[in-house]
Amino acid sequence: MKGFTLQFNYYFYIFHFMRFSFSPVQTGSLCAVSAAFLFSTKAIFIKQAYALSPLVDATLLMALRMISALPFFLLLCWFNRHHNQAISAKDWLVLIFSGLLGYYFASWLDFMGLMLISASLERIILFLYPTLTVLASSFLYHQKLNIKTWFAIFLSYGGTVLVMLQEGKNAPSQGGFWLGASLVFASAVAFAVYLLLTPALIKKFGSWNFTGLASSVACLGTIMHYLIATPAPLTVINELPLAVWGYGISLGFFVTVIPTILLMQGIQRLGASQSAMIASIGPILTILLAVIFLNEQLNLWQWLGCVLNILGVLLITLSKTRLKH
Fold this sequence. Notes:
Layout: H1 2-17, H2 24-40, H3 42-52, H4 58-79, H5 89-113, H6 119-126, H7 129-140, H8 147-170, H9 177-205, H10 207-229, H11 233-238, H12 242-270, H13 272-279, H14 282-293, H15 300-324
């Protein structure tokens, strides 16, 4: 509970400072930094919630998260429901599929993986998703990648493998380490596919409306998953410690709803390129928080791997943004 209280205080100070008047660039930068920080706390909350009770697993924690977030995403849909383009049944089906894939299935895989690996490694593996979108786009659209892009991919994956090998040495032989790493990587793949589907949907629905709709679909899918997969689901929820509810609500509001809105505000004021540069601090923030709250320790080789991963992903993200312009 101490970790939860300290992290809540961080959130209070973030929103307290946002009350002052800033220029558009300053406001955008503050929104992007705040979003990066809030997103980086996700793995910390999850690991701490897992440690509180044997009743807590990925499906239960995901359900608490989405139950907390659903009302806000429904409001987002309602206030941004107007659009100028005709929307077909096919568009709705693709939106439902993308929401289930990107916000439900990818998140569930991530939560499952975090039961088996450290928060630091999870964040590093997830941070590979921009490289996966580049590779998938190259395959789908028959685009050749230049030397700079291949070098960036080599840096990001080389750094990730370095971190994994170092952690794998100390992992218990029967602890499911490689399964956990594989689940998180599968989560990154699912999210990358979701990103490939979103541009056309955003043009149809609008960015805010699409975010609200896709997230609401994922919330409903997660809740249905929990109700079907859990015997006596209401009984289990009633038996949870109050602190688990605290983490679940925080995951829904502070780690899902608020950073999603802040990130979109940052992109609107700064552009995708600047926002991507700021977002690159996310893995470092997660690692620092994991050291403080989870007592995770990284050796010199792992820190080197983190730096290589971030440099590689940042090179790819920024070059991809420049191509769009």
